[in-house]
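Researcher: Here's the sequence for the chain we discussed earlier.
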Amino acid sequence: MANRIFIATELFQPLIAVMQDLQGEWRQRMQGTYVRWVRFDCMHLTFHFLGDVPGTQVASLSTLLPKTLSGLSPEPVVLSNLEAFPTARQATVLMCRIEDSSGKLLQQIYDRVAAMLVRQGIRIKQRAWHPHLTLGRLPVPAVVDTSWYQPGPLAWFVSSVSLMSSTLGPGGPTYHTIKVVPLEK
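Model: Thanks. This is the structure I predict for it:
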């Protein structure tokens, strides 16, 4: 049986509280516009969404992920700005960008995992990757304003990467952590 698999870093509680505040502010500003807001228990920073992956390949990924991330150290990251995708005039996704202090760690994780996935014969989307947290999705494109947001002082460490599965249900997805790989200190 195949599993919907993705590789991400999970969020810690103070960050989730900040995301709740951002979502609440955006809800007020977008009254009258239908938005499917991301549940807080579903928020994470995705590096790669793989889709359906056979169980044997999931076991292989679980073994390879620690080797792939070997030598990477935790690094502070911050919320940078709010954005709408693809544009503020035709928004279908509301998100908050993430930046790391060196500008390298998040991209290194993304690139190393991508190379490992390709070696395993898993197809990945070849496109620019921009670290972000999705706050909501708009089924009908809308004009949105993101200029009101001022990033706060909150920083946190990306200290692990998780191999996760997603099960779709009537109330939305449910996520299960398969393996947590701590970054070296």
